[in-house]
Amino acid sequence: MKNGFNEQLVKNIKENLGSYFMAVLFFTIGIAAGAFTVKALDNGQKQDLVIYLNRFFQILGNEQIKSTTILVQSLKNNFQTIFFIWLLSITIIGVPVTLFITSFRGFIVGFTISFLIQGLGWKGLLFTLVAVLPQNIIFIPCLIIISALSISFSVHSIKRKVRKGFINNVKGNMLSYTLSVGAILLIMLLGSLVEAYLSPILIKSLSAYMIVQ
């Protein structure tokens, strides 16, 4: 079953190489923009963010972590993002909006990691490894795949409208696309579980060490 999934994924990437390239490119641009934004902050703004993080770690060390609340919020955020991409992919504005969402998610990742490392040094790198990286190992590939599928579907939809003689199984493509998005959304559930039940435990265990004196 695993080999079958891998073969299908490789086939899909080969067939939609341009869409995957665009998704990865815009996500990378978002990461770079996030990192440059951190560099553009003045020392006062960076210090304010470090103070905020210190308060967060202090509160976290004394508060009970509500994993269920984190899980629900993570699922809600991911579902809204993916549903929005899926919905707009059937319209003519699907491609630019999908690329914007992809680059914005990249921006958040780039800004977060860059600030943590620049603001907290080795502590920031450690925090990134235990708090940011685990769930994003799952979230980022899933987002790239869904974005590429959305771009491909939008492009084919535009072709169907432009080329009146273009023959394609619209219902079949829509069903296949929707099922693929649904399957990847289920995989993202694993990332939400990591974010809700694993990362908070690791963060809490490090909260006292993370405070910058």
UniProtKB/TrEMBL annotation:
- Annotated TM spans: 20-38, 81-101, 108-131, 137-155, 175-198
Q: Please, which domain of life does this record's source organism belong to?
A: Bacteria
Pfam families, from UniProt? SpoIIM (PF01944)
Report whether Transmembrane helix shows up as a keyword of the record: yes
Q: Does the keyword Membrane apply?
A: yes
Question: Which keywords, in A-to-Z order, does the entry hold?
Answer: Membrane, Transmembrane, Transmembrane helix
Protein name per the record: Stage II sporulation protein M
What organism does this protein naturally occur in? Fonticella tunisiensis
